[in-house]
């Protein structure tokens, strides 16, 4: 492939929470607007056409998400404020897992926050909904471009999305950008989602758990130690007709680039056996050695090889941005990945 298109929006800048709660401590938010600036510099350095997203209706969101969660996200900050609570919206109580949970017709924003949100690291501000909606539109616009014949598309999404499930959200994610794009691309045939973020994409797995038309595969830090903790084990394979369309490959702390690449190769072998019409990649640069939340030793050369290996699948490729928080390194990291995808030299000349 000799060219690429990047889809980029502006609303993400308005989602700039003052803090989050992590391990019981009030801390700075890692998902900063400056991430997009660095990533954009990186893709511009390899050559890309940049386009704005087009708006997609709520019906597109309903292909993946529960309407109750969508209503909550759209109104959460206003309701929280009306109840006299200082922002941002951060829950302090959580609904039960693995069993029935009820919410009353007149449940407060505090109750709804604990019902739909699964952590204290996904604060909601006044403009979070507009930023999340635009990120979803970025991904859906990327899918539109793939349908129109563009072979390589980058959705520069922020906030990220792969921890957003059908009816809950967490991990800096509110709407599942990758899942929305994959659901849209099903009309072209089977879709493979390749998740290369350091953290398991529990939300994407949840969305397609029983869908035989979508393969979900992930290489990630082991859930015994890393968020989201409760999913991403190798014995999670899907159900019914979708059995064996989920493939998880957790790796230990300290995994180096060669082992990581070999593990991704195992995943891509399964993708080829599935024989998808299109491939959607959840790309998290928190797999890289310099990232403050990851524990892998993946370097720029490894990222170059990943880009090249994904393009070698020979399918239209939509890359959706997920994590990656080493601000000083993001430009070089995303540049390395797309130099590989574009068959450019591994090091910038």
Mean pLDDT: 94
Estimate percent helicity.
25-40%
Task: State the distance separating the first and last CA atoms.
Answer: 19 Å
Secondary-structure-derived class? alpha/beta
Q: Whole-number radius of gyration?
A: 19 Å
The low-pLDDT segments are: none
Helix/strand order, N-terminal first: EEEHEHHHHEHEHEEHEHEH
Q: Indicate the overall shape.
A: globular
How large is the share of residues in beta strands?
5-15%
Q: How many beta strands in the DSSP annotation?
A: 10
Biggest pleated-sheet summary? 8 strands, parallel
Major β-sheet strand ordering? 4-1-5-10-9-6-7-8
Number of helices: 10
What descriptive keywords fit this protein?
alpha/beta; two-stranded antiparallel sheet; globular
What does this structure look like?
- The protein is of the alpha/beta class and 349 residues long.
- The chain contains ten helices and ten strands.
- The protein has helices at 34-46, 58-61, 67-82, 109-116, 128-147, 177-185, 202-208, 257-274, 300-311, 330-341, and strands spanning 5-7, 20-22, 25-27, 49-51, 152-155, 191-196, 214-221, 246-251, 278-283, 317-321.
- The protein has an eight-stranded parallel sheet with strand order 4-1-5-10-9-6-7-8, with helices on both faces.
- Helix 1 (34-46) runs parallel beside helix 10 (330-341).
- The protein is globular and about 55 Å long.
């Amino acid at each position: 492939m000799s060219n690429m298109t990047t889809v980029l929006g502006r609303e993400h800048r308005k989602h700039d929470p003052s803090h989050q709660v992590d391990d019981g401590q009030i801390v700075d938010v890692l998902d900063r607007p400056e991430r997009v600036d660095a990533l954009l510099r990186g893709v511009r350095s390899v050559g890309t056409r940049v386009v704005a997203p087009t708006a997609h209706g709520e019906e597109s969101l309903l292909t993946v998400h529960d309407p109750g969660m969508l209503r909550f996200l759209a109104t959460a900050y206003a309701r929280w404020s009306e109840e006299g609570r200082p922002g941002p919206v951060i829950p302090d109580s959580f609904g039960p897992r693995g069993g029935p949970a009820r919410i009353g017709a007149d449940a407060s924003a505090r109750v709804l926050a604990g019902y739909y949100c699964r952590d204290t690291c996904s604060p909601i501000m006044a403009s979070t909904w507009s930023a999340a909606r635009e990120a979803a539109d970025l991904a859906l616009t990327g899918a539109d471009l793939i349908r129109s014949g563009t072979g390589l598309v980058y959705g520069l999404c922020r906030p990220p999305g792969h921890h957003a499930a059908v009816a809950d959200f967490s991990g800096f994610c509110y709407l599942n950008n990758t899942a929305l794009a994959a659901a849209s691309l099903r009309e072209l045939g089977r879709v493979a989602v390749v998740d290369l973020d350091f953290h398991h994409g529990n939300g994407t797995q949840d969305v397609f758990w029983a869908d035989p038309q979508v393969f979900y595969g992930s290489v990630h830090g082991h859930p015994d130690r890393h968020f989201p903790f409760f999913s991403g084990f190798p014995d999670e394979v899907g159900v019914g007709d979708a059995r064996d369309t989920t493939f998880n490959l957790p790796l230990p702390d300290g995994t180096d680039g060669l082992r990581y690449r070999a593990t991704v190769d195992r995943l891509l072998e399964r993708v080829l056996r599935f024989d998808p019409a299109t491939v959607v990649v959840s790309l998290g640069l928190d797999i890289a050695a310099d990232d403050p939340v990851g524990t892998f030793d993946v370097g720029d050369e490894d990222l170059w090889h990943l880009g090249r290996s994904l393009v070698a699948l020979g399918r239209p490729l939509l890359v959706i941005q997920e994590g990656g928080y080493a601000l000083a390194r993001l430009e070089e990291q995303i540049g390395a990945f797309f130099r590989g995808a574009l068959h450019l030299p591994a090091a910038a000349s």
